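2024-03-11 09:14:02 INFO queue: dequeued item Knr4/Smi1-like domain-containing protein, len=190
2024-03-11 09:14:02 INFO validating residues
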Amino acid sequence: MSVEESWAKIECWIAQHAPEEPELPGPCTCEDLESLYERLDVRLPEDVEQSLLRHDGSGLTEILPPGYTLLGIERILENRATWLKYATPDDANLAEEDKPFLVPVAELSVEKLMVDTRTGRLGSWDIEQGYFSSTDPLRASLSAALDFVGNLLDSPRPWILPLPGGGELEATDMDLDFPGTLVWTEEPLD
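2024-03-11 09:14:37 INFO prediction written
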């Protein structure tokens, strides 16, 4: 499925089940992307670019499990500058030559979802563990993650995501604290 088709399914679910979500940001422009590339010194994979051209991030909406918000262009630049300055010098999980090719595309509190601009593969970074990658199919690319979320939300209730190694997450619109929003929870609701 294309990034556009995945976003269409996600947008439809939000409109139908999560009316309390803030409106998703509009698209960035091609000029915004070119400016981003000049400042990054690398190009983002095509699927990340297509997502930004649909929505310049996801604002406060937690699109990717377990609760990542997608970054818009300005937040990508801010996060990358901070990461390169403070995080990468001590990251034993990364070879020095790999660091320039990693760009944050989503965040969950202090954890960053990073895209390897050479392969499109997603990995995670946090201050305690440093950078780590996974063989999880949801991390194959941003388009794979959006495809999975779109298909999951397009299916009948309950929207259950099995996790590698056991366990599961549920996408819900009936969270007690945030009703009418998209919430990923480890506590399935009755």
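2024-03-11 09:14:37 INFO annotate: The CA atoms of residues 46 and 161 lie 26 Å apart.
2024-03-11 09:14:38 INFO item closed
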